[in-house]
Design a protein that fits this description.
alpha/beta
Length: 350
Amino acid sequence: MRLLKWLGVTAAALVIVFMVSCGLVAIRPASTSPITGPSSIAALERISLGGAEQTILVRGQDRSSPVLLYLHGGPGFAHLPWAPGYSDELEKHFVVVHWDQRGAGASCEGIDHEELKLEKIVADTIELSEELAGRFGGNSRIVLLGHSWGSLVGALAVQARPDLYHAYVGLGQVVNGKRNEELSYEWVLAEAERRDDQQVLAHLRTVSPPYANSDELGVQRRWLINYGGSIFAMDRVPSLLWPLLFGPEYTLETRLSFPACFTASTDAMWGDVGAVDFQAEIPRLEVPVYFFTGRHDWNTPYPLVEEWAEVLEAPSVEIVWFEDSGHMIPMESPAKFQRALIDKVLPQTR
């Protein structure tokens, strides 16, 4: 009887602790953990880009280090809460800047998604790059890294303003929007057939690229993820939901609006993705290029990256393979991802 009473009291106490914790999360302002040292920086900042207030996360042990600007994917998949999981080592060598793009995450408030266009995000990227290049240590150039949708934005920014950048890193590089979705869809279809998943096949055959909206895209992406064509090493990836719910980088308001902002951004700019053909549009880039590519990536299919790398003219072009990863390399292989940036890309800043 005493045991039952003890269990009841303990359960009640845990419920109270949980409710208090949730309440604290709900009311606390957005923040980032401090970095010790006389020249360090650890700040969440609001910055005006193209007349719109947006949020950046700036972290580094030494303000005079080269700047690494990370462009997130989507469109609209802001990532500030996940950034600490694959930036800790980078912060020792770079000033790492993560940015929630216009209309996404902590940069969603006050944005009319119907007016979102690829060229606006590219213009914001260039404006932010100019600000960062002049702000830290007098360093005139930065390293630009674009992930997935961000790689589309990044390549166009580098093409337009190579003078701003030491190097470009295409992480899960978008090459040809139309062929990208065709190859990705064909891979999922073939995998369902190989597994004889008749219900999945029936589901997949209700859609086909080009997708009309995020709902249709979501049908294909659901099974792409389930079959390991997006996140290959799911067992190595920590919870994606926990940082969004409890990461200190977001307020409660941002957490609640995150899904709607993501969907609205995707719907607004998905047509821009489908129109891209970089083999035709970008025959040359004026800075060293690194393609960080997962061997199991069928979200942005790696054969297209190989094709573009073969013909792209640049001071240097290198595919850096991640043999045990898919599309989410920073989460699947965070140590290898950071080491590759430090060993291969950092020397370009010297």
